Amino acid sequence: MHRTTRSTARVAGVAVALIAVIGVVTLSTAKAGMLEHRGVDDITGAGLPAATAGTPAASAASDDYSAPLGPPAREAQPPPAQPTPPPAAFVALSNDLNSIVAATGAHVGISLVELAGTDAEALSINGGDSFYAASEYKLPVLEYNAEMIAAGQASPDDQICFQDGDYIDGWFDDYTSGACFSRQELATRAAHYSDNTAAHMLLRDMGGTAALNAWAKAAGAGGSSFFEPNTTTPDDLAHLWVAEQSGELGGTQTQGWLYPLLTHTVLEAGIPAGVPSNVTVVHKTGSLDTGVQNDAAVVLGGPAGAYVLVVMTDSGSWSGGLQIIADISSRVWAYESSRS
Q1: What angle do CA 85, 89, 93 make, to 5 degrees?
Q2: Which of 27, 128, 185, 311 has its CB surrounded by the most CB atoms within 10 Å?
Q3: 193: closest CA among 259, 261, 281, 291?
Q4: What is the CA radius of gyration of the chain?
Q5: Helix or strand or coil: residue 270?
Q6: Is 69 within 8 Å of 58 (Cβ atoms)?
Q7: Is the CB of residue 129 less than 8 Å from the CB of residue 239?
Q8: Strand partners of residue 308
Q9: Selection from 235, 261, 285 nearest residue 113 by Cα
Q10: In sequence order, which residues have a C-beta less than 8 Å from that of residue 249 and are 6 or more positions away?
């Protein structure tokens, strides 16, 4: 069964609120942190005694013990405002995405968050499900490095030297004991080429798996265990991108370093394949030969503004998973184009 949730959320500065309701998810105001859950106190005054004409009100400073005891009367409050229903076109988008997922027969999760526009919405289809992250763990590793560089606590020129335990089969094979690489070079390899050893060296430099997961949890990915055992959810990856794009992880300085590394990579067959070629897609992929295909992106060229899209799949087919992601991306782009 495919679970779709709906929440009311609107990005205001650096925050997004996702509140689950049945059906689809709506974006609403949240100014105090990622995913702040908001409630409404319904105080109607029902059952409280009302003041009567000519009866003096009770007072703690009064010596008139003949005054009636009990709490003071409260004026009835209006009922809380009802959430604005999503546009019909957004409901149609949600229905279409559910149909695409159902037709695949695969385990597919989607998280979409629009970051601009007065009618900004969000939806999550199996977004809380756990998937194998594959190379998606490199996204928080790179975001951490971007934040440290922006804060002056690290430099792109820092030298990180290879240790034998760093090696994981991947894109490059020039790692030898004692060979040193700049942080910039390792980040380029891990981001643009998704090289495994480069990412592992950056992970070791930041303190290992425990440090990575502590940082990711603080950034909004509380349901993930990156690298070991390396699981995450579409919603968690969306939280990381929303935090990055909203400026919560360092703003334009981190984006200026990170975004070029994750644009026009060697792996563009997922979300980028579903949008026009002139649209900027900043994204990190993750895949396994067994058929795991994931893509987590912030799309900067949306007609109504930027949006975050994460698609995770376990279809048993390398090419089939990529096609699922591209089809979902294309349908989302068609909706985003209608908002312009």
Answers
A1: 105
A2: 311
A3: 261
A4: 25
A5: coil
A6: yes
A7: no
A8: 113, 298
A9: 235
A10: 143, 146, 147, 219, 243
Q: How many residues does the chain have?
A: 340
Beta strands in 173-318 (DSSP E): 180-182, 231-232, 281-287, 292-299, 307-314
Peptide bond into 229 cis (omega under 30): yes
Q: Which long-range CB contacts under 8 A does 33-40 form with residues at least 24 apart?
A: 34/219, 34/220, 34/239, 34/242, 34/243, 34/248, 35/220, 35/239, 40/80
| 9-11 and 28-30 beta bridge pairing | parallel
The answer to whether 292 and 314 have CB atoms below 8 angstroms apart is: yes
Name residues whose C-beta falls within 8 Å of residue 198's C-beta, 6 or more positions apart in sequence: 170, 172, 181, 185, 186, 187, 189, 190
CA neighbor of 246 nearest in space, from 3, 30, 6: 30
> How far is the first Cα of the chain from the last one, in angstroms, to the nearest whole number?
33
Residues of the chain above pLDDT 90, percent: 71
DSSP code of 137? G
Q: Is the pLDDT of residue 131 over 60?
A: yes
**Which band of pLDDT confidence, cut at 50, 70 and 90, is reported for residue 340?**
low
Alpha helices in 118-251 (DSSP H): 138-150, 183-192, 196-205, 209-218, 234-245
Query: Quick one: pLDDT at residue 12?
Result: 36
- Rounded to the nearest integer, the mean pLDDT of the chain is 83
- Going by C-alpha positions, the residue among 279, 183, 108 that lies closest to residue 191 is 183
Residue at token pair 């500065």: 13
Cα dihedral 23, 26, 32, 38 in deg (nearest 10): -50
Q: What is the pLDDT of residue 65?
A: 39
